[in-house]
């Protein structure tokens, strides 16, 4: 489980995580857990929401409601709340909140149950699926269980003074509860020189960096071209390499031989 979080200023965490999911080399669950409201469904997948292929009433909130009386997290409870992502069939989506304040309906125990379920989620064939979690902007309502249980916590940052200062504050807060080896940077909309400057300024290892790519960013954040991924994309080329490196590092088992990004491999419960 990899969780991404950012400081203020919208450095591009959600766009970067969507790109990482789209290029992941195995089944992956994209969980939109931003307490301030999910952007994946109305952004990247907006056309599919309008067409009724993606339901915004299924996701984090519906799972919290359905499991409110459960005493422990169970990956089997996620199936009815995960939806297939039409542009990339190996990705399942746990949609986020649709209105301000909805996060209040998910208690600390609710976040803990969801975290356990996400960490143990499996495909329809019973194969463990990786999970990419968008925890939104760090703040008072940040869902800490999703950070504490993650194999890797990525702090998204752009190579600007404002974003570096925001990331510095987030890293300082995380350092009190998250082991240093589990925290790295995702540098967004950058150049090699910009990435070098960010690494030097924050004294933290960079997990991966993605270049400025306005067209692809507009697809993943605004639903341009119906959310269809462009064939030539510097951003996706970078996340393609990063996804394979991260998968080989954190996925302890070999890839499912029945799964490739060219085939229709749906996650458990994502057959809608």
Structure description:
The protein has nine helices and eight strands. The protein is α/β, with parallel strands linked by helices. The chain has one domain (2-250): Rossmann fold, CATH 3.40.50. The longest helix has 17 residues, at 234-250. The radius of gyration is 17 Å and the shape is globular.
Residue ranges: pLDDT <50 for 5 or more in a row?
253-266
β-strand number: 8
The named CATH superfamily: P-loop containing nucleotide triphosphate hydrolases
Beta-strand proportion: 15-25%
Question: In terms of topology, how is this protein built?
Answer:
Layout: E1 2-6, H1 13-22, E2 28-32, H2 46-50, H3 60-66, E3 83-84, E4 91-94, H4 108-119, E5 130-137, H5 144-148, E6 152-157, H6 161-174, E7 183-190, H7 192-202, E8 206-211, H8 214-222, H9 234-250
Parallel strand pairs: 1-5, 1-6, 2-4, 2-5, 6-7, 7-8
Antiparallel strand pairs: 3-4
In short:
This protein has 272 residues and is α/β, with parallel strands linked by helices. It has helices at residues 13-22, 46-50, 60-66, 108-119, 144-148, 161-174, 192-202, 214-222, 234-250; strands spanning 2-6, 28-32, 83-84, 91-94, 130-137, 152-157, 183-190, 206-211. The chain is built from nine helices and eight strands.
């Amino acid at each position: 489980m990899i969780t991404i979080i950012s400081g203020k200023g919208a450095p591009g965490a959600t766009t970067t995580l969507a790109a990482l999911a789209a290029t992941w080399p195995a089944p992956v669950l994209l969980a939109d857990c931003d307490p301030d409201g999910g952007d994946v469904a109305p952004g990247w997948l907006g056309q599919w929401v309008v067409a009724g292929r993606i339901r915004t009433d299924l996701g984090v909130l519906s799972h919290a409601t359905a499991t409110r009386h459960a005493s422990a997290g169970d990956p089997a409870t996620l199936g009815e709340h995960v939806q297939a992502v039409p542009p990339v069939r190996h990705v399942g989506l746990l949609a986020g909140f649709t209105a301000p304040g909805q996060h209040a309906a998910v208690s600390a125990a609710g976040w803990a149950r969801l975290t356990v379920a996400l960490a143990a989620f499996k495909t329809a064939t019973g194969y463990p699926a990786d999970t990419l979690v968008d925890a939104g902007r760090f703040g008072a309502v940040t869902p800490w269980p999703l950070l504490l249980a993650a194999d890797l916590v990525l702090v998204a940052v752009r190579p600007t003074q404002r974003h570096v200062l925001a990331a510095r504050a987030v890293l300082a807060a995380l350092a009190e509860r998250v082991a240093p080896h589990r925290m790295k940077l995702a540098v967004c909309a950058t150049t090699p020189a910009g990435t070098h400057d960010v690494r030097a300024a924050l004294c933290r290892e960079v997990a991966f960096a993605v270049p400025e790519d306005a067209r692809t960013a507009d697809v993943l954040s605004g639903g341009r071209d119906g959310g269809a991924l462009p064939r030539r994309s510097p951003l996706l080329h970078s996340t393609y390499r990063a996804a394979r490196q991260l998968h080989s590092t954190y996925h302890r088992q070999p890839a499912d031989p029945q799964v490739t990004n060219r085939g229709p491999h749906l996650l458990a419960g994502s057959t809608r």
